[in-house]
Amino acid sequence: GATIGILGGGQLGRMLAVAAARLGLKTHIFEPGTNVPAGDVAHQMTTASYDDAAALRAFGEAVDIITYEFENIPTSALDILEALAPIHPGRNALATSQDRLTEKTFLQDLGLQTAPFADVTSMADLDAAIAQIGTPAILKTRRMGYDGKGQARIMAPGEAGAAFDAMAGAPAILEGFVDFSHEVSVIGARSPEGAVACYDPGENVHSDGILRTTTVPAKLSPSQRTDAVLIAAKILNALDYVGVLGVELFVTPQALIVNEIAPRVHNSGHWTQNGCTICQFEQHIRAVAGWPLGDGARHADVVMENLIGDDMDRVPALAKSGAAIHLYGKAEVKPGRKMGHVNRVIKAVGT
Ligand code: ATP
Ligand code: MG
Ligand code: MG
Which one of 128, 147, 176 terminates a domain? Predict the structure, then answer.
């Protein structure tokens, strides 16, 4: 069978490698860090920096298909790899989602709604953006942010200076604060032939910028649910996408507002491991390996809870609770670090 190269050896890479193994496929992880979650389960591992052209070339030559678990892969590395093996999802999906300004512009050009936004590279830009968008607002670095890192809230114009300083000179965007009732996400997949399958939207609760829980079904009207899936499909088709994509949405009475997209399997899709026949990880491997997509039908109501930092202390009790436990094998517990998750199956659909 084919060997799938995965850039990134974190928990998403680990769960992709497990899914690939179940399909009889081999995986080869490329990851700069040592002692990483995917290392235990991948067939092969290259530990090297993204600056190491020789290591990248050897990796690219050893694999048949390349995919990734995170979107911040350096362009120089992609230039080397794309000559050696197909990269799925493609580079346009990466380029679009690596930069919040490019991403929001792409979404608006598709006719989708986003928070109002403005490019901010100087304090003068920020003052002008606040005059235009108002407060409250959020200043976010354009690149590299995750789990709410690289963001500063501006509740009143007087807080602009401190927020600008917090960006430490990195290019940023100012986003108007969306007054949403709740957050949902759609995990969708597209095959090379253009087939699209989306999972039922999940409802997401964050605290301190980190996802805490995802619940399916989400609180959505039938028309909102359809709208959410159509938004995801529109994005998948516009990017000529291959693989699984996460789309984060804010729910307001007027419309669904797109927050951001992630060109990969997504934390808010972990519930599919115990709520669907084909989970998001298998679905992604199927798509990138050119297999038919599985359908996204949900057979159960599920609550996914992330285990963050000291939540690991609850594992013995959780193990007795009937919840499905997924641990990432991380060497060290740290505050704010995602250590695992549990899926509680609440009841079967239709019962
Ligand atoms: P992720 O880990 O999901 O990639 P991130 O660091 O990219 O997170 P965002 O998704 O942009 O960050 O923001 C994190 C959370 O902050 C959102 O899920 C939402 O709760 C809140 N948030 C972000 N932008 C806005 C906004 N414009 N209006 C209101 N709330 C927002
Ligand atoms: Mg993000
Ligand atoms: Mg987000």
Answer: 176
For the CA of 151, the closest atom of ligand 1 is: 6
State in Å: Cα 81 to ligand 1 middle: 31
Distance (Å, whole) CA 60 – CA 99 = 25
Query: Region 48-54: what's the mean pLDDT?
Result: 98
Sheet of 137-141: strand order equals 117-120, 172-176, 137-141, 151-154
User: H helices of 153-298, where?
Assistant: 160-166, 222-238, 272-275, 280-289
**Which residues, at least 6 apart from 158, have a Cβ–Cβ distance to it below 8 Å?**
none
The residue range of the domain holding 256 is 182-348
Last residue of a domain, one of 160, 176, 192: 176
Residue 249 belongs to some domain of the structure: yes
Which atom of ligand 1 is closest in space to residue 180's alpha carbon?
Answer: 29
Q: What is the DSSP string of 29-77?
A: EEESSSS-GGGGT-SEEEE--TT-HHHHHHHHHH-SEEEES-S---HHH
Look at the chain and report how many structural domains it folds into.
Answer: 3
| Most ligand 1 atoms within 8 A of CB, residue of 259, 270, 338 to mutate | 259
Q: Note whether 324 and 342 are within 8 A (CB).
A: yes
* 267 is known to lie in a ligand binding site: no
User: Does residue 350 carry a pLDDT above 90?
Assistant: no
Atom of ligand 1 nearest to the CA of 149: 6
Q: Which residues contact 39 (CB under 8 A, 6 or more apart)?
A: 9, 29, 31, 45
Tell me the whole-structure pTM to 2 decimals. 0.96
Return mean pLDDT, the chain. Answer: 96
Q: Is residue 97 part of a domain?
A: no
Q: What pLDDT is attached to residue 148?
A: 85
- Indicate whether 229 and 298 sit together in one domain: yes
The 10s digit of each residue's pLDDT in 155-202 is 999 999 999 999 999 999 999 999 999 999 999 999 999 999 999 999
CA of 27 to the centre of ligand 1 (A): 32
Residue 27 lies in a domain: yes
